[in-house]
Design goal:
Number of strands: 11
CATH architecture: 3-Layer(aba) Sandwich
Strand order of the largest sheet: 1-2-11-10-3-6-8-7-9
Number of helices: 10
Order of helices and strands: HEEHEHEEHEHEEHEHHEHEH
CATH superfamily: Vaccinia Virus protein VP39
Helix content: 25-40%
Strand content: 15-25%
Shape: globular
Largest sheet: 9 strands, mixed
CATH class: Alpha Beta
Number of domains: 1
Bound molecules: S-adenosylmethionine
CATH topology: Rossmann fold
Length: 310
């Protein structure tokens, strides 16, 4: 797609962006849709998706149009804009602590609606890898179980974040030896599965899903993965505030399609990092993004991220 056509569409705003961009390649081919995930799921063909690897919007308010406009103007809103050091500006961070009781209840409703919309679109035995964080993971897992998914474990991404570990606000000196909460050093990814039809072996034959691809013949897929934040070239290609690293996502997408057959969905694709990971691994995928700027970012980023050696 010529970049001039792309930038013209972007300038013209939401309505003129293409609803669908289909990559021409067969090997690791992908589709990305500029759409609302819930609407897309409601119209999707039942039993058409074989796995989900996604990082949904937490805080929910962060990714509303109002808050994204504030972020892009450098005003912050619910986004925490860290102070600059030596003229070097650090990236804005989501501020989860702003969640009120209403926000928490909205979060549960969001995941309830998501889990219910997703279940029929998945083939039996499809796995769902869903990024979360230690403070709100229960608000995701409960609705997934209620909707009929099986919990199959949790992937622990070992990563040092900037969240937690702080002293009591405005009493830092008085309570110099106190952390209000632990500094988070891991990111949980819920692992769910739509129930299989029959035994795992039956499901693998019929639907190509039900298990996870092993790392090697001798080594099963494991639930602890060390993965630093996306940096350098990845951040330069895809400056999304919640960018996930290719080194990590490629391990998930490989595990998610055990026989390498079928389609992976990322309904909240952001800059398209999951789609790029699938493309790099020769797996088919579909991505959905509702924000025009991030959709445009994904169009550019996917082929570039997929080419990176990690
Ligand atoms: C946490 S970010 C994902 C970022 C992604 N991990 C990456 O590496 O770029 C969540 C994304 O979901 C998008 N989003 C929020 N609500 C959505 C919806 N209803 N449908 C589709 N996308 C949505 C946001 O605009 C945001 O880009």
């Amino acid at each position: 797609m010529p970049s001039t056509a792309r930038s013209a569409r972007r300038k013209a705003g939401i309505g003129s962006l293409p609803p669908l961009y289909r990559a021409a390649t067969e090997w690791g081919g992908y589709e990305i849709h500029y759409a609302d995930a819930f609407e897309w799921l409601r119209n999707a063909t039942p039993n058409s998706i074989h796995a989900v690897v996604t990082d949904p919007p937490y805080g929910l308010v962060e990714y509303t149009k109002k808050e994204l406009t504030k972020l892009r103007k450098g005003k912050g809103g619910v986004w925490r804009i860290p102070p600059s050091f030596d003229g070097c500006r650090r990236k804005p961070l989501p501020r989860f602590t702003v969640l009120t009781e209403d926000d928490k209840s909205n979060l549960q409703s969001f995941f309830r609606e998501f889990a219910h919309a997703l279940l029929p679109v998945l083939v039996p035995g499809a796995h769902v890898f869903i990024a979360t964080n230690p403070l709100v993971s229960h608000s995701v897992y409960g609705p997934f179980l209620e909707a009929g998914f099986e919990k199959r474990g949790e992937i622990i991404r070992v990563v040092q974040t900037l969240r937690g570990g702080d002293r009591p606000k405005n009493a830092e000196t008085e309570f110099a030896h106190i952390s209000v909460m632990p500094r988070s050093c891991w990111e949980p990814w819920g692992l769910f599965r739509k129930p299989c039809q029959g035994r795992v072996q039956d499901n693998l034959r019929r639907w190509k899903t039900g298990g996870l691809r092993r790392i090697s013949e001798a080594e099963p897929f494991k639930d602890i993965i060390l993965a630093s934040p996306a940096r350098g070239a990845e951040k330069a290609i895809a400056p999304h505030p919640s960018l996930k690293p290719q080194a990590f996502l490629r391990q998930l997408v490989l595990a998610a399609l055990p026989l390498g057959a079928g389609v992976i969905l990322d309904p909240f694709m952001g800059s398209g990092s999951t789609i790029a990971a699938a493309h790099a691994c020769g797996l088919r995928s579909v991505g959905i993004e509702t924000d025009a700027d991030y959709f445009a970012m994904a169009e550019n980023s996917i082929p570039l991220l997929a080419q990176l050696e990690v």
